[in-house]
Design brief:
Spore Coat Polysaccharide Biosynthesis Protein SpsA, Chain A; 330 residues; single chain; 2 domains; binds uridine 5'-triphosphate; four-stranded parallel β-sheet; UDP N-Acetylglucosamine Acyltransferase, domain 1; 8 helices; alpha/beta
Length: 330
């Protein structure tokens, strides 16, 4: 199975962190998010090749994956981020056999899912999750036999939405030649939404040519695209991979689940629950919960909650000398 992972986006919703690091290299639960996707593919022995579509800061992804995994990755550069459809189209040269199947996984979404089961279907399969509020998502419309008929981006309301099955970013496509033909079709005809070529427009084109697509329910869908979902995924991963024997730190209370990387100096602090502290951080006199602190940061005299602190950042609060009147608030 050839797996395509688009990782070329700018990750604007996670700025400023994505100004210096590609989104998929941001740390969640102690590892860059891309690590979990690749680890699952390799452990499940699913991928004959893994093609990463890179762009802004792509070298960082390349260097990391080549050093973290013993696998021969293919990296293809997307010259301009022109949408997911365009990103997938960049992988075309790696597909030369008409029997090649394609599994597309978005690089900023983690899945707790049985991929082997998903790809054992006789038809193409689109990963979906049942949601309460379909208007925030792309949803599928199915016919009476259960085959997907249409993809609808952000329906105006719950009432007009054809279903509450949201597309989660996992696509198993049996017929890769037709996929690339359909991508070419939308690009040649300049079919765009907000100036971007959408993968779903190409999928609809495939359906119109007779391709059968069904849905597969993905319960564990862990989005990492926004600060609040990154922290939510961090909580999920920390819960899942709880550490049993932990080093103790001077005058410090650790409330599990937490992740603490190597060479951290921590004293007089309360860490957790749900704190990811990456390597070589210095933390003194602080309380940190529900947060991600990247490598080499220094945190002193602060209470951090629901925070994301970039690499080598310094957060220190100095003591105050004040002359404060009654009923004041600081
Ligand atoms: P998103 O639209 O969620 O990611 O694309 P983004 O564009 O990086 O994020 P924002 O909207 O600016 O915050 C989902 C996945 O598709 C990739 C992204 O890197 C991400 O992994 N992608 C998106 C591409 O590779 N190329 C594109 O042109 C667009």
């Amino acid at each position: 199975m050839k797996v395509i992972i688009p990782v070329a986006g700018f990750g604007k919703r996670l700025r400023p962190h994505t100004l210096t690091n590609p989104k998929v290299m941001l740390n969640v639960g102690g590892k860059p998010m891309i690590h979990y996707i690749i680890e699952q593919l390799i452990n499940d022995n699913i991928a004959s090749s893994i093609i990463l579509i890179t762009g802004f800061l792509g070298e960082k992804i390349k260097d990391y994956l080549n050093s973290a995994f013993n696998f021969k990755f293919t990296f293809v550069e997307q010259d301009e981020a022109k949408g997911l459809g365009h990103a997938v189209h960049c992988a075309e040269d790696s597909f030369n056999n008409k029997n090649d199947e394609a599994l597309i996984i978005l690089g900023d979404t983690l899945f707790d899912v049985d991929l082997k089961k998903m790809i054992s279907n006789e038809h193409s399969v689109i990963g979906v999750k049942t949601v309460d509020d379909p208007k925030r998502f792309g949803v599928v419309e199915k016919d009476e036999r259960g085959y997907i008929r249409k993809f609808i981006e952000k329906p105006a309301s719950k009432e007009v939405s054809p279903s509450n099955e949201a597309i989660v970013g996992l696509y198993y496509l049996k017929n890769s030649l037709q996929l690339f033909d359909s991508l070419k079709y939308i690009m040649e005809n300049n079919i765009t939404v907000k100036d971007e070529f959408q993968l779903t427009d190409a999928l609809e084109n495939m359906i119109s040519k007779g391709e059968k697509m069904v849905t597969f329910y993905v319960d564990g869908w862990l989005d990492c695209g926004k600060p609040e979902t990154l922290l939510e995924t961090n909580r999920y991963l920390l819960n899942k991979h709880q550490k049993k024997n932990r080093n103790s730190f001077k005058n410090t209370l650790i409330t599990e689940p937490v992740y603490i990387g190597d060479n951290c100096q921590i004293e007089n602090s309360i860490i957790g629950p749900f704190a990811t502290i990456n390597s070589s951080c210095i933390i003194k006199n602080s309380i940190i919960s529900n947060s991600i602190i990247e490598n080499n940061s220094i945190i002193e005299n602060v209470i951090l909650e629901s925070s994301i602190i970039g690499e080598a950042a310094i957060v220190k609060k100095n003591s105050l000398q004040i002359n404060l009147g009654s009923f004041s608030e600081i």
